[in-house]
């Protein structure tokens, strides 16, 4: 009898593990398919180097929120929650707005998180946020240098690749402003093919390539 009970428990455990694994795989496949359908912040690659590339971004409208906290760890969840709430219907018209990619964070003393507004929407078309602190910000056209890294982002990794980018630009004699951004391309529940970038605005009027 004891052997039968033990065998039954093992079978139930294996079934539960199988269900959990199947659920995990379904979520990851859903995330992968969703990424393919998400509108991205458009850019043109102007030049590639060994560890970074130079890009041109066009003028783009963003929803943004400035946070009093410092660092990625302390700011990312709060900022994402505020902006995701707005696009998922926490606004005066209870209107949903399509998610875009990447999520952008200005790496300043106080962090600013931004979601790109879908291209078909103009500022005057957007519903008023219910939550104070959300603003609509027009980012001008700009030239940037970008370095990428995989896996899960954290403050240590972001700082590491920021410094790598600075050293690479200095080695090439490419001038830049002290305006760095972190770009995250994946939802929190995505485990595979995670993509992150650190970019910095270049002094484009001095570039010669």
Describe the overall structure:
There is one protein chain. The protein has about 210 residues and is α+β, with helices and mostly antiparallel strands. Helix content is about 35%, strand content about 30%. The protein has 3 helices and 11 strands, in the order H-E-E-E-E-H-E-E-E-E-E-H-E-E. The protein has helices at about 1-35, 70-85, 155-170, and strands at about 40, 45-50, 55, 60-65, 100, 105, 110-115, 135-140, 140-150, 175-185, 195-200. It has a 9-stranded antiparallel beta sheet. A two-stranded parallel ribbon has the order 1-5. The longest helix has about 35 residues, at about 1-35. The model has no long low-confidence stretch (mean pLDDT about 85).
Structure annotation, total helices? 3
Catalogue the unreliable spans. Answer: none
Rg, nearest Å: 21 Å
What is the first-to-last residue Cα distance?
A: 79 Å
Trace the largest sheet across and list its strands: 2-3-9-11-10-6-7-4-8
Q: Got a strand count?
A: 11
Please outline the helices and strands.
Blueprint: H1 2-37, E1 39-40, E2 43-48, E3 53-57, E4 60-66, H2 72-87, E5 100-101, E6 103-106, E7 112-116, E8 134-139, E9 142-150, H3 155-172, E10 176-184, E11 195-202
Parallel strand pairs: 1-5
Antiparallel strand pairs: 2-3, 3-9, 4-7, 4-8, 6-7, 6-10, 9-11, 10-11
């Amino acid at each position: 009898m004891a052997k039968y009970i033990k065998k039954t428990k093992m079978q139930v455990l294996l079934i539960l593990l199988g269900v959990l694994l199947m659920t995990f795989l379904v979520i990851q496949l859903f995330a992968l398919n969703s990424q393919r359908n998400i509108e991205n912040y458009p850019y043109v690659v102007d030049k590639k180097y060994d560890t970074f590339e130079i890009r041109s971004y066009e003028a783009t409208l963003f929803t943004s929120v400035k946070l009093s906290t410092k660092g990625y760890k302390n700011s990312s969840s709060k900022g994402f929650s505020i902006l995701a709430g707005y696009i998922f219907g926490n606004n005066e018209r209870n209107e949903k707005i399509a998610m875009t990619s990447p999520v952008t964070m200005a790496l300043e003393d106080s962090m600013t998180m931004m979601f790109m507004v879908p291209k078909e929407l103009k500022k005057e078309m957007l519903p008023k946020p219910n939550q104070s602190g959300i603003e609509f910000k027009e980012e001008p056209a700009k030239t940037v240098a970008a370095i990428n890294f995989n896996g899960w982002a954290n403050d240590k990794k972001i700082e590491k690749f920021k410094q790598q980018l600075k050293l690479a630009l200095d080695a090439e004699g490419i001038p830049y402003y002290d305006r760095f951004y972190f770009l995250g391309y994946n939802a929190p529940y995505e485990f595979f093919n995670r993509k992150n970038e650190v970019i910095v605005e270049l002094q484009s009027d001095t570039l010669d390539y």
